[in-house]
Amino acid sequence: MKTVSEADSSAESKLLDPKRQEVIDNRAKRGVTGERVEFKPPPDARAAAPGGADPHPGFSYHGGPVVASPRVFALFLGDWTSTANQARATRLIQYLTDLVGSTYMNILSQYGCGSSGTFIGSAFVANTNHNLREKDIHHILQSAINSNAIPEPTNHNNVYIVFLDDGTGVKDRGLKVVMCEAKSDNAFGYHNVFTTAANNPCNYAMIPGLSDLCLNETCKGSPTCSLNANETQEQRQTQVASHEFSEMISNPKGDAWFDDSDGEENGDLCNGLSGSITVNGRTWTVQRMYSKADDVSSNGNNICVLPPTHPIPPLVPNVARL
Ligand SMILES: [Zn+2]
After folding, report:
1. How far apart are CA 204 and CA 199, in angstroms?
2. How far is the CA of 269 from the centre of ligand 1 (A)?
3. What is the DSSP secondary structure assignment for residue 169, as one 8-state letter?
4. Cα(31) to centroid of ligand 1, in Å?
């Protein structure tokens, strides 16, 4: 199956500024753009003897900046007016608040992303375009910044998590992402960055509705699909959000933490492997996350972890900060 990591050669993106194009090409090569639909079981998900070990020696730091002290803002795009959607949005806000304050950050601390983050707010933003391209998304975010619906990322630790309503998909030729469209779906989420009019980096993750309709179109009943039909819509969204959040803060510009061999980011290496966290009595579905520290110490036998009690110390001193 085609993945979203393949190099881009679309006519549309050739119109971009060459430097920007280079960034996009590099990001595409590095697999920065999306959660794979296919589930590749990580080695510690199999009941495997040491023969099943699959260490990732190529996963390393490449010198680029990370988000060292994440500040998360949630944006609900489109029609969230129904009682059920309002309730889900409230739950997702609670989830993000809990996630960034939870021990989940103890995994991400090894990449220089700090050991706790902050939830800074949320907004509902109208949208009637149900087939979004990247440039539409940039326009929506910039307009929301201009109208003070969402904060300008003056603080470069700001990251935006965009939840789409069930009727909205993304189809972008440049990134080769198709999510929750009528056909040809190939991703469940992705993250990207653009520079705002005020010249700040706007890091954002796109999380589509992941309704049963979307899941059925995307997975077509495949047992290797990375999201489970038995999960609730909320569970699918929280699982994907943890994947994208982890990548967005550890590899915001595509030049920090990723695997040289295939461009995979920390979320990708454990794609489709769910777990849960419990914060103040609330239990949430998350994706288990790649831990380089555990990979090394276990010789590849324990790579996709749930949160340890204490923060894993940074693997590299003085990681660059966005
Ligand atoms: Zn990913």
Report:
1. 15
2. 8
3. E
4. 7
Cα–Cα distance list, 147 to 125, 130, 150, 163 (Å): 11, 22, 8, 19
Give me the amino acid identity at 105.
M
Q: Is residue 38's pLDDT more than 80?
A: no
Q: Residue 96 sits in which domain range?
A: 11-46+59-305
Radius of gyration of the chain (CA): 18
pTM, to two decimals:
0.87
Task: Say which residue the tokens 């954002």 belong to.
Answer: 204
For residue range 153-200, what is the model confidence (pLDDT) as tens digits?
Answer: 999 999 999 999 999 999 998 888 899 998 888 889 999 999 999 999
Domain count, the chain: 1
Whether 5 is covered by a domain: the verdict is no
Quick check: is 6 in a domain?
no
How far, in Å, CA of 5 to CA of 25, rounded? 10
Residue 234 lies in a domain: yes
Tokens linked to 40? 């590749």
| CA 298 / ligand 1 centre spacing (Å) | 23
Is residue 67 one of the residues assigned to a domain? yes
- Ligand 1 centre and the CA of 147: distance in Å? 31
In the reported structure, the alpha carbon of residue 190 is separated from the centroid of ligand 1 by a whole-number distance in angstroms of 6
